[in-house]
Amino acid sequence: MPDWLDFDQLTEWVSGQWWSYLVIFAVAAIDAFFPVVPSETLVVIGGSLASSGDLSLLLVILAGATGAIVGDNISYGIGSLVGEKTIKRWFKSEKSHKRLEWAERTLDERGAYIILLARFIPGGRTAVTFSAGYIPTFSWRRFIVYDAIAGVAWATYAAMLGYLFGKTFEEHPLWGVFLALGIALGLGLVVELVRHIRNKRATTV
């Protein structure tokens, strides 16, 4: 998260007002192709606020899911429009190239599975959605079905974490938010670690 954007700023953005849903939607969409802040953070906070009645849990999930799906499809569209060479020029770092190569390989091997999994990998969803756009055999009709499932599953998971821990820590709601965020981050790290170990094993075989 950038230095200029702290946790207090995020809680001000999602504060129980009607525009909170628009903020969750917008950040979830932008985070899909231009990661600025962890969109999981806002969805978890939204879920926590829903536990106290300040927001609607259903609308928090809907805003997060639709934002994620719209953002993923923007990534897919950009990948399809500009092509592989341009995408790889934009993502110049060695780490980014490795992610794109991993996304290309796993999309070819596993397809739908990796679209679902990548939604929970920090940075992984960006590589997968861009790559899906420029891989000729990966049609948009195939992509949108599994991406919609992934978006709804991700938003439900993050919002429910905030909601359940918000209910548990009603007298200290921030404790619930921090614990829910810790679990969300931990899951992302575990998924990334498993992916890294499997890739390492595959290269040594």
Task: Please name the defining characteristics of this protein.
205 residues, mainly alpha, 79% helix, elongated
Helicity level: over 70%
The description of the largest β-sheet is:
none
Q: Per the principal axes of the C-alpha atoms, what is the gross shape?
A: elongated
Helix segment count?
A: 10
Radius of gyration: 17 Å
Structural class, please?
Answer: mainly alpha
Q: How many domains?
A: 1
Q: What percent of residues are in strands?
A: under 5%
Q: Give the number of DSSP strands.
A: 0
- The low-confidence runs, each spanning 5 or more residues with pLDDT under 50, are none
The N- and C-terminal alpha carbons lie at a distance of: 37 Å
Q: What's the oligomerization state?
A: single chain
- Series of secondary-structure elements, N-terminal to C-terminal: HHHHHHHHHH
Average predicted confidence as pLDDT: 76
Description of the molecule:
- With 205 residues, this protein is mostly helical.
- It has one domain (7-204).
- It is 79% helix and 0% strand.
- The protein is built from ten helices and no strands.
- It has helices at 7-13, 20-33, 39-51, 57-82, 84-90, 94-109, 112-118, 124-134, 140-168, 173-204.
- Helix 3 (39-51) packs antiparallel against helix 4 (57-82), helix 3 crosses helix 9 (140-168) and helix 9 crosses helix 10.
- The longest helix has 32 residues, at 173-204.
- The radius of gyration is 17 Å and the shape is elongated.
- The mean pLDDT is 76.
